[in-house]
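Module 6 notes. Inverse folding takes a fixed backbone as the condition and produces residue identities as the prediction. Think of it as a translation problem where the source language is geometry and the target language is the twenty amino acids. Below is one complete input and output pair. Work through it position by position during the lab.
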């Protein structure tokens, strides 16, 4: 339901403004009105009333707080998360406060020191990780070429270079060898080793004096030399590969050491930093909130909203803190501002989980109807009518409770499992009404329907669905009339009442023509249909004639029993597979598979259809969105 709200005005001496704002934040129940209409009227009578403006000292304090908060945020992004980290309480946990010292200045100094250390560690870590990633590309080639390089390491007359050849370049190798033979008079050697199926590594050895010509030849033949990292590119290949191998051995311990340092820093400081972030955020919010206050040279003035249930607590807290110095006045809510009153939904614990369906909609306007309690009643009802099986209901209840036990700490999952627990219980209850247990197994065990069986009289089932549609749609229109009356919309009241009369007239005409009612009902209906349409148009204009489409909405409720009959038919079919399949084990497996498919069907389709009937056929008759969210000024958690 939508909680009743109280409109308040608070007045007090300017000297107590900061203390009042701090108390409001602690209470956490006041929605601050930044531009109240009353102020314009007051300013016409009392021109000296103006919006509170921060003095230079307060502006400097705010800038200092925001700078510190940004430093804290950057540090928290840099430091690794420590699950067991303790959250501190703010400044006192971060730095000691010597007498007479400026705590914010001390905090900023400490944050600069921590930031410099953290940034240095992170920079070193990234540099080492980038180097490790770069050198890791040479792992395979290094392992292949290192033994070959050892064969020529001691010679000063020979030079070597590494080659990387793809499998497609195998034909070029013989041409390369012929050209090198001419260039060096046969004084060269190429040693090949396979890196993988697609790549071949080679070590080319040639006289030092032929180095320039040999590299030119490789370039002309489009043979790729092994390209080394820039840090070792100028080194001879044997020395370069030796440096790479040494660094590959040195980097993992260095990376682990830096990560350990960061983790230790996080264990020491992350908790206090989290507390400081909260403390700074709350201080900044107080300063920002002061911009919504008004003042004269000696007093402050504030307008806001508070739930009626919180008003007494607010008045008591202010009286205890300030006595008669600060006054809380309750003001009447004017007609023109009723629809802009902040909206807060307060539902009972059993109903609140069903807000997962209404939270996807805009907030209802103040003074209208919160549909959550209605969804809490009708969603499980429709869900149970559709499934209507004791066995499936018990399985769904078990699944919902298991998921809640395993993942219930997540608020969304907790709400969803609560909703489906109620829906599963409804399915069990309707299973007794239909006499169904995994299809016709209940019938075989002697279970008899308390209401009717769904595989029997289909005419009765269809009339049952239409009856539900009539009741649901009529309730929706009735709530729409009630809302229109509360909002003072006479034309809307007339058009919606005429819409109900139209449905009654159509029903009378059908009943009279079918012989279900006296013949006079037909004539009453034929007269009532055009009259009700005319009243719709007179009450709400040509567009109000759309109220007549509720007739089609009623027929949409046939999906309740239609989907239910499809589900029970699938269950009946699964049970008949066992005797049809010659091998009992295969028959049972086939039946269980079909029941599992039907169970999945029972989770998805009834949910979609039940909530669709609310969103499309039900809510449109009374729900009015566009409410302003209640956003109390409170302590940041």
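Target side of the pair, the amino acids:
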């Amino acid at each position: 339901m939508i909680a009743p709200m109280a409109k308040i005005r608070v007045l007090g001496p300017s000297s107590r403004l900061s203390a009042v704002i701090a108390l409001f934040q602690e209470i956490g129940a006041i929605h601050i009105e930044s531009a109240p209409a009353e102020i314009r009227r007051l300013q016409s009578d009392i021109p000296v009333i103006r919006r509170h403006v921060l003095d230079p000292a307060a502006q400097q304090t705010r800038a200092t707080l925001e700078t510190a908060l940004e430093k804290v945020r950057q540090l928290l992004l840099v430091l690794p998360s420590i699950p067991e980290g303790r959250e501190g309480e703010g400044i006192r946990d971060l730095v000691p406060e010597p007498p007479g010292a400026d705590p914010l200045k001390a905090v900023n100094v400490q944050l600069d020191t921590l930031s410099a250390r953290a940034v240095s560690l992170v920079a070193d870590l990234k540099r080492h990780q980038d180097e490790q990633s770069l050198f890791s590309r040479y792992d395979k080639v290094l392992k292949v070429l290192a033994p070959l390089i050892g064969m020529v390491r001691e010679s000063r007359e020979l030079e070597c270079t590494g080659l990387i050849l793809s499998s497609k370049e195998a034909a070029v190798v013989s041409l390369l060898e012929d050209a090198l033979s001419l260039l060096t008079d046969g004084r060269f050697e190429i040693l090949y080793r396979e890196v993988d199926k697609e790549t071949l590594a080679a070590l080319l050895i040639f006289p030092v004096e032929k180095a320039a010509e040999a590299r030119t030849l490789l370039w002309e033949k489009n043979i790729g030399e092994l390209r080394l990292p820039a840090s070792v590119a100028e080194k001879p290949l044997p020395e370069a590969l030796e440096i790479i191998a040494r660094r590959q051995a040195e980097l993992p311990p260095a990376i682990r050491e830096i990560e350990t340092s960061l983790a230790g820093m996080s264990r020491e400081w992350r908790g206090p930093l989290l507390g400081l972030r909260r403390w700074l955020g709350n201080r900044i919010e107080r300063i920002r909130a002061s911009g919504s206050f008004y003042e004269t040279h000696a007093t402050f003035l504030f307008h806001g909203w508070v739930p009626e249930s919180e008003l007494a607590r607010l008045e008591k807290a202010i009286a205890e803190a300030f006595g008669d110095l600060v006054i809380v006045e309750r003001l009447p809510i004017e007609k023109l501002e009723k629809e802009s009153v902040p909206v807060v939904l307060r539902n009972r614990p059993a109903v609140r989980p069903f807000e997962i369906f209404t939270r996807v909609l805009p907030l209802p306007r103040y003074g209208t109807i919160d549909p959550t309690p209605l969804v809490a009643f009708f969603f499980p009802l429709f869900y149970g009518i559709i499934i209507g099986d004791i066995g499936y209901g018990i399985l769904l209840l078990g699944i919902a409770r298991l998921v809640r036990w395993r993942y219930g700490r997540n608020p969304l999952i907790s709400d969803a499992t609560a909703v489906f627990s109620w829906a599963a219980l409804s399915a069990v209850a309707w299973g007794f009404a239909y006499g169904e247990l995994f299809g016709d197994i209940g019938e075989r065990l002697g279970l008899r329907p308390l209401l009717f069986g769904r595989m029997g009289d289909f005419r009765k089932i269809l009339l049952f669905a239409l009856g539900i549609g009539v009741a649901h749609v009529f309730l929706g229109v009735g709530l729409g009339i009630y809302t229109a009356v509360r909002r003072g919309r006479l034309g809307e009241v007339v058009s919606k009442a005429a819409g109900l009369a139209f449905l009654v007239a159509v029903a009378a005409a059908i009943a009279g023509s079918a012989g279900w009612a006296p013949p006079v009902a037909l004539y009453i209906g034929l007269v009532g249909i055009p009259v009700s349409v005319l009243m719709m148009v007179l009450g709400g204009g040509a567009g109000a004639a759309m109220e007549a489409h509720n007739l089609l909405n009623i027929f949409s409720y046939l999906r309740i029993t239609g989907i239910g009959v499809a589900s029970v038919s699938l269950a009946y079919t699964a049970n008949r597979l066992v005797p049809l399949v010659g091998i009992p084990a295969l028959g049972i497996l086939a039946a269980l598979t079909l029941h599992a498919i039907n169970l999945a069907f029972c989770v998805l389709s009834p949910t979609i259809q039940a909530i669709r009937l609310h969103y499309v056929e039900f809510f449109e008759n009374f729900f009015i969105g566009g409410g302003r969210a209640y956003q109390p000024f409170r302590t940041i958690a």
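Reference fact for the lab report: The mean pLDDT is 81.
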